[in-house]
Design goal:
Blueprint (H helix, E strand, L loop, with lengths): L6 H16 L12 E7 L5 H10 L3 E7 L2 H10 L6 E2 L3 H9 L3 E2 L29 E13 L22 E3 L3 H11 L9 H14 L3 E4 L4 H7 L4 E5 H13 L4 E4 L6 E7 L1 E2 L5 H12 L1 H11 L6 H4 L4 H4 L8 H4 L3 E2 L7 H12 L1
Parallel strand pairs: 1-2, 1-3, 6-7, 6-8, 10-12
Antiparallel strand pairs: 4-11, 5-8, 5-9, 5-10
Length: 355
Amino acid sequence: MRSRPSKLSRRTLLHAAAATALASGCGRQSGGEPVLKVFNWSDYIDPAVIEEFEDAHPCRVVYDNFSSDSELEARLATGGGAYDVVFPSDRAMHSLLAKGLLQPLDSKQIGNMANLDREFLDRSFDRGNRFSLPYFWGTVAVGVREDQVAENVTGFEVLFDPRYRGRITMLDDLENVVASVLMYLGRPLNSVAAADLQAAKQLLMQQKLLVQAYTSDAYRERLIAGQAWVSLGWSGDLLQAADIAAEQEVAIDVVVPRQGTLKWLDSMAIPRRATNVALAHRFIDHLLAVDVAVSNAIHVRYATPNEAARGKIPPAMAADQRIYPPAETLARCQWLEDRGEEIAKIEAIWREVRA
């Protein structure tokens, strides 16, 4: 893997760039330079990719971050930010489309979509990919500080071990957490059956005494600093943490549970209120270019759905089963499904756990 600056300095750079560009406040800067407003998860793009796009399509990219699907939906619903390109998760797509918050893509402007793996196209949340194209995919995994946890961890079990009381973090994400617990209990990941949800609730309430924090942002930093020893997180985020910790001669193991886990897909889409639609299409096409997709995948440490790019991924990374799990593990993984109104049952559990 190529050397790169620390994650904290890179985040600072991106946020500083976003703040500077936001100060211009409209679709063009004072000098007439077009502005493309991008709303993405944190630490989820190679800054060089943005710089290359700005050079190739003279413009300024405003890059802002969100930390949850609900935050993304709220911004799009209120028109806050007037973003041109967003990166929703597979589960967020159902609601965004139902509320008319995205606009159709013009495939004629995205020639590089031919590079995508058909396995990740035509998913149930967007048949025919009328509104979205795949960006990255991954799994829910467990990060473990090897200097503090001696046993061989193979799955979710370490998250419920009383020996690590006060050193465990869980995602602040009701669907991912409840689904992970159901998988650990050997129950259907998408179940809304009363018996399954009661079992999940009981275990989560017992575990609550062990949990240091419920966080979808700070778990990487907590693992690196040694504040947390065990964390439920997203695979690439945990691998980023492992890379940074290795520079400090600290080992963080990233475990994709052998019993199976959640797999997910994040996509690229254009909001209904986008102001630079043509430039947005060019940005999406840029991200799908083979060399760009390769450098982006190397940087963020997530699995690329870009089939043409996968052949150019460094062999060690392509063979890393934490990024690209083997077929037998993937066969036990599942996608989250849209539970519709039944999601209220899971929300009720989460309110009790987080109370």
